[in-house]
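Hi Y.,

Following your request, here is the sequence exactly as I used it, all 94 residues.
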Amino acid sequence: MLTLTENASTVVKEIVSRNGAPEGSGLRINAQDTAATEFAVAVVPTPDPTDSVVEQDGARVYLGEAAAIALTDKTLDAKVADDGRVSFEIGLQG
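Below is the corresponding structure, written out as tokens. Let me know if you'd prefer a different format.
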């Protein structure tokens, strides 16, 4: 299952909060197929019924079925640039 670094957890919570999303909202990651290297990301109020839910340090990430498979052994990290832009990086766990 995807894990989040401390930075990623903080950034995910901030993104969701800034969007004025209701309690329980999270960042949804989806992919077109299980071999994906590009992902769609959106703030959503609830996961889809088939989503996997990753909750870490108060951050919620909802993974579409293909994304859950593609990211099963990965770690999500995040960096914030001086101008406020966020970039996510995906690496292997451990």
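Residues 25 and 75 are 21 Å apart (CA to CA).

Thanks again,
Q.
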